[in-house]
Amino acid sequence: MKRLIARLAGLFILAVVLVACAWLPELSDSSLGTASPDTPPPGVTLVAPAGVTLLAPVGVTFVYTPTPSTTPSPTLSPTPTVPSPTPTASVTPSPTLTPTASVTPSPTLTPSITPSATITPSLTPTPTNTATPGPSPTLTPFPPDHPPDDHYWLARPIPGGFVNYVDRNYPYGSTQNGKREPHHGVEFQNTTGTPVMAAGAGTVVVAGQDWTEKYGPDLYFYGNLVVVQLERRYRDQAVFNLYGHLDTIKVNVGQRVKAGDLLGTVGLSGVAIGPHLHFEVRVGRNNYDSTRNPELWLAPFAGWGSLAGRVLDAEGKYVPGLTVVIKSIKLKDETHGPIVRYASTYAQETLNGDDEFKENFALGDLPAGEYSVAVSGITKGQLVTVTKGRTAWVVFSAKLVPTPTP
User: Fold this and answer.
1) What CATH fold (topology level) applies to the domain 153-294?
2) C-alpha angle 38/15/35, rounded to 5°?
């Protein structure tokens, strides 16, 4: 009986061994890992009969390492990176320009003290001063009994071929509608390097910079400047011409010059806003308070004249800051419309009128002809005839009505 039990136990052990061998390939699977020696595979329970001790056969080793079954994370295939297209500049072909009619430039006016051929009016400077209705004065225009004498001694300080007419945006005595200080001279707008010529014969008394000596309201006001004292005297007074904001100076103090001699070149030194020539006429003394309106000294273009006048209140005092409108009766500009010019009465009485005219407004470079002259806010003006080489004259006496307070 004992032998039978021993045989059955042996058979049972053999069966277990066979079963274990059948499991070995599966235990090597990566999902199970490697078994430790005494650990049965999962799901297999070995039961021994009572009193029977199960022993592993000699040479048989169970290797099993329990490893948590982890569902492998899927390997993500990299998303293909689509390169951003490099923007290509789209070149829009420039349209082929159809040639337009060539505008014939206005003739360059050559300065001439002696009137010669008649010049067809063509220059129409854009006015800065707009006729703004102000107080409603009652003006009675009347012609003077004895028009003052002219003194057109000076040639243009800028030669022909360049801009040799006075800029209307900032004439003598104006303030650009209150934006700037009253102007003590006139301007000739030209590019840097434009030649600057002597307007009359005389002697150079200043040639340099105003860093240490004031010739204007402040030091370095004019920058590079030349001052010429004329040979001629006016009413037994010295006359000076000042050329300011120069780029270069071509003369020396004490040098004698004649009209048309090169003094320097246009620049923007000092307080200049953009390149231009600042030109002054000073009578009596070479200082800022002795200026006169250069437009009554510069010889008009051939066939052209000038206009000067006074606007007075009922007490005979000069009225500053009014706009004077000058409109041609028959003459036409290049647009076939009337010639229209604007002038301003001098901003303050400290700006000197001419010793002869005692004016408080003036306008040069007017083609000879008939003009209607009116003051801003006046419904009826005066007919004035401008003759070549002469200054037309007009006086307005007014009783100004104060503007009502709103």
Assistant:
1) Glucose Permease (Domain IIA) (2.70.70)
2) 25
